């Protein structure tokens, strides 16, 4: 078990399977909110669905529409289970808030390097804690 300590952005506690992106994620034009799938053509996870997964990524890129696209995933039932990101920005923080899933950032270790796709992860947005169960 590995514990990462950081700052909670959105409260709540969930446990689920991690989906790790080593690249930033674009909201507008980078995801399909109807399916919860990354559609950015040159992205390492193009064609991969994040619905119901703990989405671990470096941060958001692109326009201010990022949060709107992730809010749509909540409304359509295709949102990730939680978000863990390395770099907090207004896009990623607002996106996590409107998606209403537990979110943690500013961790003491880089989650993109520590967590692997398929790991079982607990995200505790109340305490700013991410626990990796291998």
UniProtKB/TrEMBL annotation:
Q: Which protein is depicted?
A: Putative aconitase subunit 2
Domain named Phosphomevalonate dehydratase small subunit-like is located at 25-104
One Pfam annotation reads AcnX_swivel_put
- The protein's superkingdom reads Bacteria
Q: Which GO terms describe its molecular function?
A: lyase activity
Keyword entries, A-Z: Lyase
Annotated source species: Thermopolyspora flexuosa
Q: Which InterPro entries match?
A: PMDh-S-like, PMDh-S-like_dom
């Amino acid at each position: 078990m590995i514990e990462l300590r950081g700052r909670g952005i959105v409260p709540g506690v969930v446990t689920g399977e991690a989906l790790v992106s080593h690249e930033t994620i674009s909201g507008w034009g980078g995801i399909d909110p109807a399916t919860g799938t990354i559609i950015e053509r040159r992205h390492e996870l193009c064609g991969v669905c994040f619905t119901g997964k703990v989405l671990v990524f470096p941060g958001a890129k692109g326009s201010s529409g990022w949060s709107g696209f992730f809010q749509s995933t909540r409304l359509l039932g295709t949102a990730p289970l939680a978000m863990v990101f390395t770099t907090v920005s207004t896009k990623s923080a607002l996106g996590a808030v409107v998606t209403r899933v537990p979110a943690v950032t500013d961790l003491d270790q880089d989650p993109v390097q520590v967590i692997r796709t398929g790991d079982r992860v607990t995200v505790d947005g109340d305490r700013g804690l991410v626990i990796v169960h291998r």
